[in-house]
Amino acid sequence: MRFNLGYLFGFLGFLVSQHALAVDLPEPMIAHDPILPQVNTSGWYLRGDIGFAKQTGPRISSLTRHVDADSQLTASGNFGVGYRLGESFRVDLGVQALFPREVSALQPCALACARTSKDHLQVSAVASLVNIYADLGNYGGFTPYVGAGLGAAYVRTADVLAHNSDNSEVRARGAGKWNFAYALMAGTSYEIDQAWSVDAGYQYLALGSGETEAYTLDGQQTRMQLKNLNTHNVRLGLRYQFGGSEVHQPGVFPNSYMPVR
Q1: Beta-ladder partners of 170
Q2: What is the C-alpha separation between 24 and 16, in angstroms, rounded?
Q3: Which residues in 164-209 belong to E strands, given as ranges?
Q4: pTM confidence score
Q5: pLDDT by residue (tens digit) across 199-254?
Q6: What is the dihedral of CA 187, 191, 195, 199, to 10 degrees?
Q7: Ordered structural domains, the chain, with CATH
Q8: Cα dihedral sign for 28, 33, 36, 42?
Q9: From the centroid of its chain, how far is CA 18?
């Protein structure tokens, strides 16, 4: 058999061209799954706030007198321990104090006379409520929420001043009383960092009723009773989430599309 050099040189040329083509090809790229933002959606937290409360619609009753009363603005404080149930819900146990404020009313005299007198007393309260909140999404760090709470309130009266029909003063001792209580809340929080948030909100708090110890008025035994002890509260506070959260910057996916050497 005669050996054909043309075939040999043709085969060698083919091998060289394939090697050059392989050298010119880019290195293979492997796309890894992106690392999405990771956020703590459950865990314990603490909260605390201070604010102002205004009572609306209280009524004072004694003997046959039943009149609408006026209440001063008072300070309030609140502390709670809670647990986040996923991304949208939170539940906590809170203790709230409403500091003493004056409740007063112009009372007509119990007997047949045209005189009126200004009766007043001090009222304070402590409420313990189990609250549940629904977070309504995060908008640039702001998270609006709504909530409701159920529990009990201890209403305490003090420094009672009433008047007989001849306008003479009658001073009496206050008393304490437990009531069913409930609250409705709305507000928004703002994330300072992974653990701390500022919380500003409104609360409607129904405290029930209150009363004083018995005393003698115009020769009759009576006690001053308060109804409709409801307050509108504006509050500002802080919330601390234990453990914080590990959040990757949005749009940054480490180890993605790294060339394999």
Answers
A1: 162
A2: 13
A3: 169-172, 176-191, 196-206
A4: 0.74
A5: 999 999 999 988 888 888 777 888 888 888 899 999 999 999 998 654 434 433 34
A6: -20
A7: 42-241 (2.40.160.20)
A8: negative
A9: 71
